[in-house]
Amino acid sequence: MSNLIFCDSFIDGEFYKTNEHFSVNDPATQQSIIEVSDIDEQGVNSAITAAKGAFVKLKNTNATERSETLMRWYELVIKHKQTLAELMTKEQGKPLKESLGEIDYGAGFIKWFAEEAKRSYGDVIPPTDNNHRLTSFKQPVGVVAGITPWNFPVAMVTRKVAPAYAAGCSFILKPSEHTPLCAIALAYLADQAGFVKGAFNVLVSQDAKTVGKMLTNSHIVRKFTFTGSTGVGSQLLKQCADTVKRTSMELGGNAPFIIFDNADLDDAIDGLMAAKFRNSGQACVAANRIFIQRSILDEVLSKITPKVASLKVANGFEEDVDIGPLIYPKAKEKVQQLVQDALDKGADLIGDNSSLGGSFQNPLIVTNVTTEMDIYHEEVFGPVLTVIPFDEEAEVLSLANDVPYGLAAYFYSQNLKQVYRISEGLEFGMIGVNEGVISNPVAPFGGVKQSGLGREGGHQGLNEYLEEKYVCIKI
User: Fold this and answer.
1) Active site: which residues (predicted)?
2) pLDDT of 384-421, one tens digit each?
């Protein structure tokens, strides 16, 4: 693992050292992995200048060149898959088997956009008279800045940087201060793959607010992309308004998971286990509110309770571990507060909620959840199933939609007419029908309402980094 651990920001193809440092800690042990240098104001300005210069060069490259460079990056990421996965488990805590899966998933975005780089098509528009020819074509938007979270420290980076480079844009990345090591390693490998110098810069800092403000205030930065909470995303949108930047925001979620009485229950429970407990429940698309039709409630609980109880909670490097630590102790405190609030308001608990110490949290099932409880309205971001019974289709559709968020939703049904009704009726950007894992590089990822703007992945992900130019020629 040591050959890809770096402790400094990466600017213009070089490591950038400062005199201020902070510690990146292992969530499983709370021990320091390494001290990293904290970026200073000069470093942020250097990254903006480097990205500006890189864009001048990058926009004049052709799609085939960018595609080939991205493919080399993809190959290097796959070559170093084990090393990157171990680094991820070390700084983020997820089980190693999940880290290995994320490397494949994150690399998939690089490969997909290496292919999409060659598919940025324009239009020939039928003219309205014989004296003109009308066309449109796409060009890169310019310098891009982005902030990524700690929960998927590789995939969140590649699904932003890969389409930006494919489009011909340079990138300035501020990764989470909790998981900067994967981001620096990715930038180093991108440089080894032949990225234009300054096209992928990584700024390591504890002060996301100050760095974010410098990037959003910059007139050189023409697009800003963010994955994180709705509250922070809303503030960043306000900051981007003064310079009228293009934005894409992947924000909070509160995903419903609905099991109808006609569902294949064994399949539904397998899907629920995947949708809820991946990454210890620390995912914006994690199943959050579990709606079970009342007629099958007891049967579902009898089937899922032993599965939840059998999940192994341990350090992500141990054998057969299912749930690693939460990212830091305060994350566990929030989970505990949400569970206690629900219990105080009449919910029931299935599972052992005794402390495991540190950031480890036992998986739990909270039943008889109502809309008066905080756990119903907030993302749990932990390994806790919240169960809400329902009677009728119209009732559960109303409950599922009655939140300000609209990122992902899931439901299980064997009734074809119902599948269409619920798919069309759910106010969410992504729907899993009889499937608990829906993310895929070839498909658009994103939400509606307060869950964000824009899409990542699919051909739509490339368009987020392109401007359309119309040309009218008089002949």
Assistant:
1) 250
2) 999 999 999 999 999 999 999 999 999 999 999 999 99
What is the extent of the structural domain holding 374?
Answer: 255-440
Active site residues: 250
How far apart CA 436 and CA 449 sit, in angstroms, is 22
In the structure encoding, which two tokens stand for residue 335, read together? 């989970």
Whether residues 232 and 292 share a domain: the answer is no
Do 90 and 114 sit in the same domain of this protein? Answer: yes
pLDDT in tens, 281-328: 999 999 999 999 999 999 999 999 999 999 999 999 999 999 999 999
> What total number of domains does the chain contain?
2
Same domain, 141 and 237: yes
End-to-end CA distance of the chain: 62
The single residue listed with the structure tokens 């509160």 is: 254
Q: Is residue 402 part of a domain?
A: yes
Kindly state the helix (H) or strand (E) to which residue 343 belongs, with its residue range.
helix 329-344
What global pTM score does this model have? 0.96
Residues 6+ apart with CB under 8 A from 230: 251, 252, 404, 405, 450, 451
